[in-house]
Amino acid sequence: MKTQHLNRSFSFASVLALVTGLVAAPIPAQADVTEESAISDPVLQVGGDETSRNLSWMSESSGGGEIRWAKASEVDDGQLPADAQSAETTDSGLAIDLRRHYNHAAMTGLEPDTEYAYRVGSEEDGYTPVENFVTGPSGGDSEFLVFGDPQIGSGGGRPDDAAGWERTLNSALATAQDPRFFYSMGDQVNIANSQSQYEQYLAPDATRTVPQATTIGNHDVASKSYEQHFNRPNVSRDHGGGGAITSGGDYWFIDSGVLFININSNELDTDEHAEFIDEVVAEHGDEARWKVLGFHHSIYSTATHNDDADVRRLRKAIPPVAARNDIDLVVSGHDHIYNRTFLMDAEGEPVDGSDAGIAQEKEPGQTMYLTLTSSSGSKFYDHVPGLEWEAKSVHNDVPAFTRVRVTDGSLRATTYEVPTGTDGQVTAQAASEEIDDVEISRASDEAPEPDDDADADGAGAGADTDGAGAGADADGAGGGADAAGGESDSGGAGPNRDGTETSADEADTAADADGSTPAAVDAEAEGGEPGAGSESDAASASKDGDDLPRTGTELALPIGLGAGTILLGALLLAASRRRRSALH
């Protein structure tokens, strides 16, 4: 009788553990995935340079597929010619939703200033309709578009952030003149493993006809879904890499003579990022007329995330690396507000005599930083006035985008808002309204060699282990600024470094304002180990204050619990069956 009672206990415990595991593990429910065709989510992306374009898509069948392409002039009645070029997938596997398979492939050998047609698929799943795209000229003037957080899903339908994202994207494409690509600065989705949110982000036609480059945001990082949906070029697994269940990887590409370097700012090993930037510039800097660095967490925003511990850590590490590599422009998102800095030096301070005007003539080693606001209108953060780096901030709670025009002599970044109608509803098309304009040119034609350190204090090739840059305060502020960002009494034409101090003791977490956390949280100045899951300061909450679904690395805990309980349940069930067999 005792044995039979023990047998029933094991059976009940195994079932309970299995059920608990299934509930805890963040596997998307059926309702979270829209009904898809055999091929879904095709997305056109930048390649390593102008001669290549990368593709990603989802399929029902395993085993990969192919991409086929030809010049658009060779297409007959919507069909590619029989001798169209083709390339098989370079990477494929089971998607995070456990229902489909992801596929990556690349078109190579593309000619400049040419219209191409392509389709992706396989014999098993069929092929997508033919889509067209145009390669840009090999030289001369060009432009690209930059967008802050689309974060599809964060608005909860109020407003419709998917419609808002498509509306902003369409408005930007109508404003620009044949942009080479568009650049999304992270948080493409609100929940890292939500297939329905990725489908909405990729729904606009432009995602199949205009190449894009993406950035890993703190809402994207906690799932492999980001890596599966986006086939980025030149990804380093040794720098900013992800884990078993997280996305990662720093990467770079060259387009129209501009070297773009993108780092995964969720990974707070600043030495890794510094090494990556140094190596890429040393190897490819002489191929570029301008250098642009992109990452998600803005280090010079004028909203509430500026004092987060992870942001303060990055603010110590990035300026000396940007200076010694003569990075011209840094673009970021995360804080859902628009901000432009003064020209900043290697110590993370505004350059003496710099102003907020349109014309900005930079010396070697000086960098401008842009923070992009929401491109969907799903949420916005409050403005924090008086920060010493603030040259121009716009906080109208209106979706926006930035158009960057490139010439041999300048980078011109013009930012536009896309107002909603009087009823607050978004529509498919909208006229944009200019809210800021800045043109960066060089004071001299000579840029410093990649291994020349522009930092006056001679910082080494990699940032210090604790991320400290030249002149950084011990409490984690950017060089010359206090931990709260060094308030000033004016955001006017000239930098003010006599602002009042604000203690950072009240803001030593790296939690996102809506409850998510980055992949790693800053270790304290005294050498504490990074932690995860810290809660946001109430001051960083979004305006509506609504609790949003758990995102970012907060998913790591339920994933671990889910996997552990499923394993425990399986072991208990096996033990139960063995005891039952022994009884019989």
Describe this protein's structure:
- By secondary structure, the chain is α+β, with helices and mostly antiparallel strands.
- The protein is 19% helix and 22% strand.
- The protein contains eight helices and 23 strands.
- A seven-stranded mixed β-sheet has the order 12-11-10-21-22-23-18, covered by helices on one side. A seven-stranded mixed β-sheet has the order 13-14-15-16-19-17-20, covered by helices on one side. Strands 3, 4, 7, 8 and 9 form a five-stranded antiparallel β-sheet that branches.
- The protein is globular.
- It starts with a helix and ends with a helix.
- Mean pLDDT is 78; it is low at 1-36, 422-428 and 450-559.
Please work out how many helical segments DSSP would assign: 8
**Estimated helix fraction:** 10-25%
Strand content: 15-25%
> From the helix content, strand content and strand pairing, which structural class follows?
alpha+beta
Instruction: State the low-pLDDT regions, or none.
Output: 1-36, 422-428, 450-559
Strand tally? 23
Main β sheet profile: 7 strands, mixed
The overall pLDDT average reads 78
Whole-Å distance between the termini?
Answer: 14 Å
Widest β-sheet, arrangement of strands? 12-11-10-21-22-23-18
Write down the overall geometry. globular
**Rg calculated over all Cα atoms:** 25 Å
